[in-house]
Amino acid sequence: MSNADTPPEVDVEPVTAWLSEHVAASGGEVVAPLAFEQIAGGRSNLTFHVTDAANRAWALRRPPTGNVLATAHDMGREHRVMSALAPTEVPVPTMVGLCDDVAVNGVPFYVMDWVEGTVVRNDTIAEGFDLETRRAMGVSVVENLAKIHQVDIDEVGLGDFAKREGYVERQLRRWKGQVDATDSPNNPVIDRAHAELSSRVPEQGTARLVHGDYRLDNTIVGDDGQVLAVLDWELTTLGDPLADLGAMLTYWSRPGDVVIALSAPPTLADGFIERDEVVSIYEDSIGASVGDVGFYHAFATWRLACILDGVVDRYRAGAMGEDGGFDPDEWAAQVAMLAETALDLMSAGPGGR
């Protein structure tokens, strides 16, 4: 890779020296020069595919460009979680190391081994797998969520990672506060859903690791559909594990859904398991009933409405630059549908989904 092709987010020479030192510490070797290709990014953390002259590969994660508050905090959290999970049944990439010395690359970053497989980001990619493999993929994603929630947080050293109690209540306050700070026309329906949710928060059980953004496209799968690695741990915390299950149900879009939580989600493809199967497989995996899963599905749907409402508000305020074809009115309608769907899920009663 020529200098002209090198991403500006990577200072190649000092990063090469750092990586060489850390790979050598575990008995490996880096053969310069290194090539860096950005494979994911945006307003979230940036990910780069790193290869050396001997075709060995790693992944480098760093904060997004322009994040003036970037410290080792976010990078350190992701690195700490995946390092802690290494001896468990949860599939995570092997960590090479965390660099919190900003003199190396201007911001903290960490490097992990590259996991060869597929990130199934949309239904087009999903359709590249046969029907049987898509079903296996869905089952594996659910089973691995259960593995995350069965980790003993104290045993792996994550017992002090975050507050344990009141997760849903804290989330309800946080996102309601964001909506209250906007001039959204959807506030009344969001407020109604918030009031209903707040009045029916289930008692939280044992605090578990909560991934915070668990869905199919945040994993790497093999040709057989099995999950090889779970990625994107930047929102991880401790709390109610059923919040993860509810979020996965919200993102698990199926043909015929009125509201699609993601653009062209992979689970729209034929062959994937249905939402009721998601729940039953999860229950079988943890060996217990999840009870009122309808609440968590509604909560996650409401939270997504709040998140998108904030995006619409920032676009209308001109805080996100050119809209690139973004239609705030269309997205505002989606926000309203999500909030109404949350109310509908609540009215379905315990277990409604």
Any descriptors?
single chain; 353 residues; alpha+beta; Phosphorylase Kinase, domain 1; 2 domains; five-stranded antiparallel β-sheet; two-stranded antiparallel sheet; 12% strand
Structure description:
The protein contains 11 helices and 9 strands. It is of the alpha+beta class. The chain folds into 2 domains: 3-113, Phosphorylase Kinase, domain 1; 123-347, Aminoglycoside 3'-phosphotransferase, Chain: A, domain 2 (Alpha-Beta Complex), CATH 3.90.1200. The strands form 3 sheets. It has a 5-stranded antiparallel β-sheet, with helices on both faces. α7 runs antiparallel to α10. The protein starts with 11 loop residues before the first helix and ends in a 6-residue tail after the last helix.
Tell me about the biggest sheet? 5 strands, antiparallel
Class computed from helices, strands and strand pairing: alpha+beta
| Strand residue percentage | 5-15%
CATH superfamily of the largest domain: Aminoglycoside phosphotransferase (APH), C-terminal lobe
The low-confidence runs, each spanning 5 or more residues with pLDDT under 50, are: 67-73
From the 3D structure, determine the CATH topology of the largest domain: Aminoglycoside 3'-phosphotransferase, Chain: A, domain 2
Q: How far from one another are the termini? A: 50 Å
The quaternary state of the protein chains shown equals single chain
Helical content class: 40-55%
Give the strand order, joined by hyphens, for the main sheet. 1-2-3-5-4
User: Number of helical segments?
Assistant: 11
Task: Give the rounded overall mean pLDDT.
Answer: 90
Specify the CATH architecture of the largest domain: Alpha-Beta Complex
> What integer value in Å does the Rg equal?
21 Å
Coarse shape: globular
The CATH class assignment of the largest domain is Alpha Beta
Order of helices and strands: HEEEHEHEHHHHEEEEHHHH
**How many strands appear in the DSSP assignment?**
9
- Counted up, domains total 2
